[in-house]
Amino acid sequence: MVDPVTMFREGGPFMYIILIVAVFAMAIAFERLFYIVFRANINSTAFMAQIQKLIMANNIDRAIKLCNAEPHAALPKVVKAGLTRANRTEKEIENAIDEATLEVGPLINKRTAYLSMLANIATLTGLLGTILGLIQAFNAVAVASAEMKQQLLAQGISVAMFTTAGGLMAAIPTLILHSVISNRSNKILDDVDQYGLKTVNLLTARRRGTLKEDAAAGA
To answer: Does position 189 have pLDDT exceeding 60, yes or no?
Structure first.
């Protein structure tokens, strides 16, 4: 097995581009994972169970404090937007929830799209290095002297193979991380949509005075 140092040295100048792309991709991926897993994420089912109990007990202030306890999580931000307008009309509550949902969406998906772009750049850079390496090898066969032909041919093939391998080694983990991050982000946004609507229904039923009847019917 070829060691990475030899691979990087013999792969030619395109290996530097691939390395820079890989560093940027990993930095974005791990920053996104940290944000999504440890900051924006929350146990949505448990959180909404507590919020529902507090709304049914008409303890809106306590419900808002519960949201404030998770200032970075996406769902509490959306629920809080509805709770702060709990005494207004159904349309105003719904608009507040929708507005907050539109605000958290870009925060969840921020920079994620760059990962697929960087994976493509790494792959295409490796392909470009492969083509230029093969051109170098063919030129060696065509014009080099007999004593230099074998050395130049080997150099051209090394550039071709190592840039291909380097591009794929950068692209494959980047695409895997992109898929993981996208799935996690979609799960959070699905919870925001689902429980945002539930918050609207709970607060609307509270204003109509039918909260307990609606909860019993839902059970």
So the answer is: yes
Dump the DSSP string for the chain: ---HHHHHHHT-THHHHHHHHHHHHHHHHHHHHHIIIIII---HHHHHHHHHHHHHTT-HHHHHHHHHTSTT-HHHHHHHHHHTTTTS-HHHHHHHHHHHHHHHHHHHHTTHHHHHHHHHHHHHHHHHHHHHHHHHHHHHHHHS-HHHHHHHHHHHHHHHHHHHHHHHHHHHHHHHHHHHHHHHHHHHHHHHHHHHHHHHHHHHHHHHT-HHHHHHHH-
State mean pLDDT over 160-189: 94
Radius of gyration of the chain (CA): 28
Q: Does residue 48 register a pLDDT over 50? A: yes
Predicted structure pTM score = 0.86
